[in-house]
Structure of Heat-inducible transcription repressor HrcA:
Amino acid sequence: MLDERKKKILQALITDYISTAEPIGSRTIARKYDLGVGPATIRNEMADLEMLGYIEQLHTSSGRIPSAKGYRFYVDSLLAPEQVTDNEKVLINNWYEAKARRVEEVFQETAKILSRMTRNISMVLAPQFSQCIFKYLQFLPLDEHRVILVIVTDTGFIENKVISFPEGMLFEDLQQIAGRINSRLAGLSFDKIKASILREIKENILQDPRLFDSTLQVLREALTVSKSDRVYLGGTTQLLSQPEFRDVDKVKGLLNILEQDKLLRDIMHVTEKDGILVRIGEENKYIGIQECSMVQATYAIEGQVVGAIAVLGPTRMEYGKVMAILEFMHSHLGEILKKYKV
């Protein structure tokens, strides 16, 4: 356990390093922070902190920087909670109102907002279509022989396709068919719409097998397209402005991770765990991001956890600010999405 003096020195060192990205010496801490002790005492305490693994020295002539262990202790025990300001809340709402018109645009804009406010890479994991609830199916007239078949979920996702309908069938007949399908499928998640249910619809509800086959194909395509979560990225160019990523090899390794959708989905695996999750350095299991920190939160719609949001950046990130923004989005993204549901 660290005593209070060591805690204050560690907090001062991490706060200063996050701000400057420069190794911190004992004189700097003595000059900038009123700790009631001189540089010699601070230097001795820093030597103890280094021996305990909370800070490290890159070169014998330089000051110290936080280690992953130091950042972990800082996040868990020293960091004072921060809040998103009223002005920032207004700014976030204005960004959504100006840019977002559809559900997909909400996710795109969320990624942009997170990267803009944190100056780091942002990732937004949208809900799996298969986990969404079937809301309704609708036919929209296109011309004398074709309609647009639209499938809408409870989260507002839309899949659509142009299909032909049999000669002699009226559009009113299509509307009746849509009503019957909706009455059977409404409220089911897409992963619960099994082949047996579709056969039941074909046998008992739909009279024209060709139309049924076209409708079934669109349902299958919706499920096939959406078996994987969709990850929206923002702020990847922010890497180049961070001193930690002046090393080209580091940038290549991280960019390689960001280009692999399957890896990103695995990294952002959704759990039912509530609140903020912070992974620092080697707590991240993939080598390409083991010199980074990742702060992640889930979000819910109608009380059900459906996706995740995250900020990825150097271990020298502004944890308090990032966690406050993610906490706000964690609490409000579900409500924001509901405003854009079809």
Summary: The chain has a mean pLDDT of 84. The longest strand covers residues 304-314. Residues 86-127+229-339 form a domain with the Beta-Lactamase fold (CATH 3.30.450.40). The chain has twelve helices and ten strands.
